[in-house]
């Protein structure tokens, strides 16, 4: 019995993975710096999530 050998499709394209990686790196950086500056954990998470959204939108616009 032979199996049909079909190439697997990736879950994300390389471009999408890079855009999300840039967003995650920005979110972690901003969240860490916000927390180290003396703000609460909740404020740090909000700042990080805002940075994630902004950086993903920016990277999506400039990466072609």
Using brief descriptors, characterize the structure shown.
mainly alpha, 64 residues
Average pLDDT works out at 93
Largest sheet: none
- DSSP, total strands: 0
Structural class: mainly alpha
Q: Helical proportion?
A: over 70%
Query: What percent of residues are in strands?
Result: under 5%
Number of helices: 2
Shape: elongated
Please give the oligomerization state of what you see: single chain
> What is the H/E order?
HH
> What is the terminal-to-terminal distance?
44 Å
Word description of this protein:
The protein has 64 residues and is mainly α. 70% of the residues lie in helices and 0% in strands. The chain is built from 2 helices and no strands. Helix 1 runs antiparallel to helix 2. The longest helix has 23 residues, at 14-36. The radius of gyration is 18 Å and the shape is elongated. It starts with 13 loop residues before the first helix and ends with a helix.
Tell me the layout of helices and strands.
Blueprint: H1 14-36, H2 41-62
Helix pairs in contact: 1-2
Short description:
The protein has 64 residues and is mainly α.
């Amino acid at each position: 019995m032979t199996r049909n050998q079909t190439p697997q499709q990736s879950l994300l394209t390389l471009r999408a993975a890079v855009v999300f990686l840039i967003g995650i790196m920005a979110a972690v950086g901003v969240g860490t710096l916000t927390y180290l500056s003396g703000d609460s954990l909740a404020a740090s998470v909000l700042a990080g999530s805002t940075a994630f959204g902004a950086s993903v939108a920016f990277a999506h616009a400039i990466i072609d």
